[in-house]
Write a structure and sequence with these properties.
heterodimer; A: 122 residues; alpha/beta; 5-stranded parallel beta sheet; 5 strands; B: 660 residues; alpha+beta; Four Helix Bundle (Hemerythrin (Met), subunit A); Alpha-Beta Plaits; 6-stranded mixed beta sheet; 5-stranded mixed beta sheet; 20 helices; 41% helix; phosphoprotein (chain A)
Chain lengths: 122, 660
């Protein structure tokens, strides 16, 4: 069964791009969220296998959302999507419980290899 | 093992000591819990853990004798742990003997020896363990399997701790792919991933460097202590991308609380706390003392600068004073921080008391239960050291003289078991340490009689003392009303010694007692000893300091106008008449005081006294320095401090001043 993915990013263009990458990799996109608040809600409804999380977002940052999600579900697999130059934020997200990270701009094959690894090397 | 383990000895001695102290304390608590029918399994688990830790630690230190004895102690606890019941009194006795034996061995190890355990003690513990196992067996349908570890007597090789409880030490080395744009973040993720499997005890580069984006050569090495098998560590790392190379290898086995792990952290800046746990280092007490000394010098230098500044022409003064103010604020902050580091919980002191009381009560055929409250309160480490003996003495005193024998208690309508409560509480900048028993109480009448008989004071004076003041007579040297001075609480140190030590640290001792209902000793202590508020006074040409804690107040009077009592003037103060002594005459300075002179009312040896001085110079924070020879032999002096002018000033020991 295809792995279920939740995509969180405040830019629609980014969400679409990420969706395409995942769809091409055989994943099922189960939902999207445009900010941290939505992300936490969506996660609770959908309990996806994987969540991609933008860091800088309105209302609630990706770091806070990650912290909340992981608190409710320690097994949550969350991959942070960050731009270069946000290293310290990424480290904060890792402390908050993120499983891995990808750095924008990213290539499709890199993204898929990261998430495949983080989901158990399949 | 090529590893130089000698550098961990200090750490080993202190940590093993802590485990043993807790082991002893928990044993005593267990006995009480067993009597009350309280749940014991957690306490028994604790016993096992402490014994186990000592075993593992000493084995790692190659102290086989200690490990062998700790191993036997662990064996003795084990059957009780499996059944979840408290050890019987006999086993507790044996375990306490083992704790004492271990303590002695650790003390010898501290001297650089590799001590062997006493053979008789080993056999005694082993026999008790065999008995405990024998009794344990029938209780389970599937009897507990005999202990997995070798049972050979004597100097058995230090058995490795059982695998289940063992934390494997894993060395991890990873290389981040050259193409990775943020290698340090990758490495950081590796560290965090490892932290989920156990405890990361070391990383190179340090976490701080990773946070700062530094990963020289794209290589990270880490040491992980984990119960997880190697495969699991490898699997976790395989989930991380961008790693060019991963090597995971098992280092030599270590017990879970491996002390040496703390050492490399010394180098790490405390800026970034590790996930969850507070990061700490251990520091030698002498080093802390030297910090405080240095800070004391800084305080003095600052006030000296301030005093010198007053001589500077007006127009140049503001920038100088501004600088001194800032220096003062920084030094004050530094002082507070150094003090905070020196603060130590009272439990370090009180932990031993239940055990000591129990041993003593057993010898005397009494029963006692000691309750400790407020042990989490922290005071200056230096004070703690000073208090150990007085507190132990008060406890012995309570058990030996205060508490009645069980039949006597029953006749008096009390429970057979006596209660001693040790409690501590903060009151503003003081700590009140109280030791109360529910024994027979003290008899003011007998104290008066004993004091008179000893010639310590005239019968009429004794009569005038209130009952509460009469209780203080117990603190006169050599005064004992105990029908017989036992070897237990006699020992040549009486309440006078207790009172002296308490006052030496700027504290005060109060006694409160009701016949038949018990006695209460209250130690009012400062939080710290090094800096005290003092009142400066001038007598003849001398400046002297009185500890503010002892001062009640001051009045300006003409001595000749005061009423006389037995040849000395008395000052009405706070509803009582206080004898006034001429401080100048007392110290042999001679010279008459000016006509209306200042009288400071302070705590003397037996109640308040007035001290006539020429002038009050004001209150000041003083950094106290202990007296060097020959001044430490002069009665009436307790310390020396240095004024802003650079002038040294003696701090008076008011209690002993009268006796001088």
């Amino acid at each position: 069964m295809a792995k279920r993915v939740l995509i969180v990013d405040d830019a629609i263009f980014m969400r679409n791009m990420i969706k395409d990458i995942f769809a091409g990799g055989g994943f099922e996109i189960v939902g999207e969220a445009a900010n941290g608040l939505e992300a936490v809600e969506r996660y609770r409804e959908l309990t996806p296998d994987l969540t991609t999380m933008d860091i800088v977002m309105p209302f609630k940052s990706g770091i806070e959302a990650t912290r909340e999600i992981v608190k409710g579900d320690p097994k949550a697999v969350i991959v942070m999507c960050s731009a270069l130059g946000q290293e310290s934020l990424v480290m904060e997200a890792i402390e908050a419980g993120a499983s891995d990270f990808i750095v924008k701009p990213f290539k499709a094959e890199d993204v898929l290899s990261v998430v495949k690894k983080v989901l158990g090397g399949a | 093992m090529a590893l130089d383990i000698s550098k961990y000895l200090g750490l080993f001695v202190s940590e093993a000591g802590e485990h043993l102290a807790q082991l002893g304390a928990e044993l005593v608590r267990l006995e009480a819990a067993g009597r009350d029918g309280a749940a014991v399994s957690e306490l028994v688990d604790g016993l096992f853990r402490h014994a186990h830790s000592v075993k593992g630690m000493s084995a790692s230190m190659e102290l086989d004798g200690i490990a062998a004895l700790a191993h036997r102690a662990e064996d003795l606890v084990d059957p009780f742990r499996r059944r979840g019941v408290a050890p019987d009194a006999e086993s507790v006795d044996v375990l306490l003997a083992a704790v004492d034996g271990l303590g002695a061995l650790v003390a010898r190890a501290a001297q650089g020896e590799k001590p062997e355990a006493d053979r008789a003690l080993l056999e005694r513990v082993e026999a008790a363990a065999a008995r405990a196992r024998g009794e344990a067996a029938p209780e389970r349908e599937a009897p507990a399997p005999p202990l997995a570890e070798p049972q050979s007597p004597g100097v058995a090789p230090p058995a490795p701790p059982p695998a289940a409880a063992l934390h494997r030490r894993v060395e991890v080395e990873v290389e981040v792919a050259g193409a990775c744009p943020v290698p340090a973040v990758r490495a950081f993720l590796v560290v965090k991933k490892l932290a989920r499997l156990g405890q990361v005890v070391r990383t190179a580069p340090a976490e701080e460097d990773l946070r700062a984006g530094r990963l020289p050569g794209h290589r990270l090495t880490a040491t992980l202590e984990t119960p997880a098998p190697l495969g699991e560590v490898e699997r976790a790392l395989s989930q991380i991308s961008d790693l060019a190379r991963v090597a995971v290898a098992e280092a030599e086995a270590r017990p879970a609380p491996a002390a040496p792990a703390a050492a490399p952290r010394l180098a790490a800046a405390p800026a970034a706390p590790a996930e969850g746990a507070e990061r700490t280092v251990r520091v030698r007490v002498e080093l802390l003392d030297s910090f405080l000394d240095a800070v004391g010098e800084l305080i003095l230098a600052t006030s000296r600068l301030r005093a010198l500044g007053r001589a500077v022409p007006e127009e140049h003064r503001p920038p100088l004073e501004d600088g001194v103010d800032r220096l003062h604020a920084t030094v004050k902050d530094l002082h507070d921080k150094v003090m905070a580091v020196r603060m130590t919980p009272l439990s370090l002191l009180t932990e031993r008391l239940p055990r000591a009381a129990r041993d003593l009560a057993r010898r005397l055929g009494k029963q006692v239960e000691v309750e400790v409250r407020g042990a989490e309160i922290e005071i200056d480490r230096a004070l703690l050291d000073e208090l150990a003996d007085p507190l132990t003495h008060l406890l012995r005193n309570a058990v030996d003289h205060g508490l009645e024998s069980p039949p006597e208690r029953l006749r008096a309508g009390k429970g057979a078991t006596g209660h001693v409560t040790v409690s501590a509480r903060r009151e503003r900048d003081r700590v009140l340490l109280e030791l109360a028993d529910d024994g027979r109480g003290m008899d003011p009448e007998r104290l008066r009689a004993a004091a008179v008989a000893k010639g310590a004071l005239p019968a009429a004076a004794a009569e005038r003392l209130s009952d509460k003041d009469a209780l203080q007579l117990a603190c006169l040297p050599g005064l004992s009303t105990a029908a017989e001075v036992t070897d237990l609480s006699g020992r040549g140190v009486g309440l006078d010694a207790v009172k002296r030590s308490v006052e030496a640290v700027g504290g005060a001792l109060e006694i409160d007692s009701a016949r038949g209902r018990g006695t209460r000793f209250v130690l009012r202590l400062p939080l710290t000893v090094a800096v005290q508020q003092v009142l400066l006074v001038r007598v003849a040409e001398e400046v002297l300091a009185l500890p503010i804690a002892k001062v009640h107040g001051a009045a300006e009077v003409a001595l000749s106008a005061l009423d006389q009592s037995r040849g000395a003037p008395v000052l009405p103060y706070d509803g009582a008449l206080v004898p006034v002594l001429d401080l100048g005459a007392l110290l042999g300075f001679g010279g008459a005081r000016p006509a209306p002179c200042a009288v400071v009312v302070a705590d003397g040896e037996a109640g308040p006294v007035g001290l006539a001085v020429d002038q009050l110079l004001g209150q000041q924070e003083a950094v106290l320095k202990p007296l060097a020879r020959p001044f430490d032999r002069v009665p009436g002096l307790s310390a020396v401090t240095v004024l802003a002018s650079g002038r040294p000033v003696f701090v008076l020991d008011l209690a002993r001043l009268g006796a001088a």
